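Example record used in the benchmark description.
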Amino acid sequence: MRTLKCGACIAAMSACALPCAAQTISASVSGGGCDQAVHLVAREAPLSSVLQRLADTQRFRLVYRTDDDPIVTADERLPVMDLVRRLAREVNYSVEQATEGRCTRLAFLAVLPDGSGTSRPKIAKKPAWQTPEYERIAKQGLSDYLRSHGIPDQPVQELEVR
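Model output (structure tokens):
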């Protein structure tokens, strides 16, 4: 009976340890003074966890307000602002800095929703095939067509059917 309980405990502990082994985060500060390098090592960890660990270590406030939480793998030794820029390059974020003496430090980092689902309009992107060369060829084709039919050259907006 006793070995059965121990076996169950070991199996339960092993099951709990597996997800933790998949992601590791360690942040250590090397050196001292202004613009000191922070050594951050993260392996297969959610961005929110990595930034929270960095916020705890560097004493800045973090607000993570997006559902998007990309997986991060990094081994970087950079100043805090450069590290945040590199980690958060795929998300919408805002920073606030504070000046203390001659040093400027990160005081607040907000990771914000990308705007989908809100009333804020998104910027329409041109399709990849719609290049400046494509637009030049289309304008030339329209001009050639109009001239061949005896119609003076004009912008496509003026050719509207009424």
